[in-house]
Design goal:
By secondary structure, the chain is α+β, with helices and mostly antiparallel strands. The chain folds into two domains: 237 residues, no CATH class; 99 residues, lipopolysaccharide transport protein A fold (Sandwich), CATH 2.60.450. The chain has eleven helices and seven strands. Strands 1, 2, 3, 4, 5, 6 and 7 form a seven-stranded antiparallel β-sheet that branches. A hairpin with a 5-residue loop joins β4 and β5. The chain starts with a helix and ends with a helix.
Length: 369
Amino acid sequence: MSIIQKLIVKEWFTFFFAALIGLLLLLTIADLITGLLRSNVTPREVILNYFIEFPSTLAKTFPVSCLIASLFSINKLRARNELTAIFAGGFSIADYLITVLLCSFTIALLLFGNLSLIQPYFKSKRHQLITDSEDKFQNLKKQGFINSAVSGGRIWFKSNDYFFSFQKFDQKAKSLIGVQSYFLSSNYLLTKYINAATATYNDKSKSWELTNAIVYDSLDKTTFSRPEKIPNQKIELNQTPEDFIEIQSDISTLSFLKLNDYINRLNEAGINVNEYMVLLYDKIAAPIMCILFSLLACNALFYPSRRGSSMGKNLAVIFSFTLIYWLLNSYFLELGFSSKVNPAISVFSLPILFASGIIVSFYFQSKKV
């Protein structure tokens, strides 16, 4: 690494960590004051909740800190005429952009690791640290398919030749409670309907054993089928208890790879996974925004001799920009959660918009140089 690159990296990371600390202090004060004003929690629980949510807070502050790092480091070099000297010495704008890109890429990797591993780990400890955490803190409520069950409190599955629903899964007993099964023929005609109190998994036979089952058979025939009560009935299902354990798990405690596997299992079962795809994609989009925000502030490189803006003006622009970004990002994510737009579109619309703006801006700025 050359002396010029070391100078750029030093200035960039100095402003990055200064901005990160400043933003974290502001958010910390706001979170702690809000928590302490609540009557149903103790100061200890407020502090524990803050640390549990700390990895999520980093996801908000890292991109903005990257923007501040690029903007203020360039302004500092420009104010001391070092930027002009750097370019006069043969160090090109492209070289500078590559250096900033590498700095922001390092931060993006750290953020991805934070969202993929550290955040789920912290979330998994909340019930051990805070009693009745879901009732006390809205942000600590469980996230998963069990909260998105269809009206009536039933969870539905679909396969090629059957679909069924149940009310609850007893993990210890490996039992489905309140089972209703519908079996189809090859031409998708209803052939059999089973209503059972429970369906318990038999590890030896690898099948589900029904209790107090009422069976309607030969429903595709012209004659009317009479219900038949069968105390013990076996059915073959593609799903195992492990599938239902994952379905009822709290997805906020799943790492990136486990969350991806969780989504694939739900998708194979014919369940709408848009909400979970948004959570998965967001773990990728947030690090990408770190890189884009770093490059966004590099437009000043095309005017190395121009005097930089005042500190107050820069802070006002960054503050306004940050609020707009957080509001737009929350709005687009909510569109994806509610399945109003495709998950990929809801998550990656802003990164694509910023990337397009940066490319167009750099193109026209390079024409003027």
